[in-house]
């Protein structure tokens, strides 16, 4: 979903003069959820029934899908969005959703992606760091996202503490 959001925001900024279908974002998210569920169901069923070689191939395929499609698309779209917003008109300050994406994507790449890399390398019995390190990084990534939403949602011209409900409404109202 982070990839879909990054791409959608990038396309909406780059093609602001082109009218896109009203439910495009919803359709893309539903398709991504369906793909995720299908992949996880396939991996789970192969691994639960002790089909070791098939399980290994499914896991490797899932990690390759993550590395070669989702992560690069997220990086490219976020970088493009950053350049467009940064080099664009100085009159418009980046919106809260853009700031949120600019914070979450790099943190995801630094903190959550190492777990996928570690899991991928485990399929070949190769590990360069301990599992505790990558699990700690993934936990930090999961824990830091609500704080990012809170800070970006509550800081306009001055920071004030407001309820989480108001923060989430502000961040996602765009």
How would you characterize this protein structure?
The protein is mostly helical and 174 residues long. The chain has six helices and no strands. It has one domain. It starts with a helix and ends with a helix. It is globular, with a radius of gyration of 19 Å.
Average of pLDDT: 77
What is the quaternary state of this protein? single chain
Number of strands: 0
Largest β-sheet summary? none
Count of structural domains = 1
Q: Uncertain regions: pLDDT < 50 for 5+ in a row?
A: 157-161
- Name the helicity range: over 70%
Provide the gyration radius in Å.
Answer: 19 Å
Order of helices and strands: HHHHHH
Task: Assess the beta-strand content as a share of residues.
Answer: under 5%
Shape descriptor reads: globular
Key attributes of the depicted protein:
mainly alpha, 174 residues
List the helices and strands and how they pair.
Elements: H1 2-14, H2 24-48, H3 52-87, H4 96-122, H5 131-154, H6 164-172
Helix pairs in contact: 1-3, 2-3, 3-4, 4-5, 5-6
GO molecular function: G protein-coupled receptor activity
Organism: Antrostomus carolinensis
Keywords: G-protein coupled receptor, Membrane, Receptor, Transducer, Transmembrane, Transmembrane helix
Compact description:
This protein is mainly alpha-helical and 174 residues long.
């Amino acid at each position: 979903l982070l990839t879909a959001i990054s791409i959608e925001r990038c396309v909406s900024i780059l093609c602001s003069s082109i009218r896109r279908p009203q439910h495009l974002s919803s359709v893309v998210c539903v398709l991504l959820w369906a793909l995720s569920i299908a992949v996880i169901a396939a991996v789970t069923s192969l691994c639960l029934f002790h089909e070791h070689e098939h399980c290994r191939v499914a896991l490797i395929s899932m990690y390759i899908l993550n590395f070669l499609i989702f992560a690069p698309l997220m990086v490219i779209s976020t970088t493009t969005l950053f350049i467009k917003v940064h080099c664009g008109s100085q009159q418009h300050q980046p919106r809260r959703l853009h700031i949120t994406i600019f914070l979450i994507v790099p943190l995801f790449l630094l903190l959550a992606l190492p777990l996928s890399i570690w899991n991928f390398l485990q399929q070949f019995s190769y590990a360069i760091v301990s599992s505790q390190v990558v699990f700690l990084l993934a936990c930090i990534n999961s824990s830091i996202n609500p704080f990012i939403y809170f800070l970006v949602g509550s800081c306009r011209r001055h920071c004030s503490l407001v309820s989480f409900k108001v923060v989430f409404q502000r961040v996602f109202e765009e």
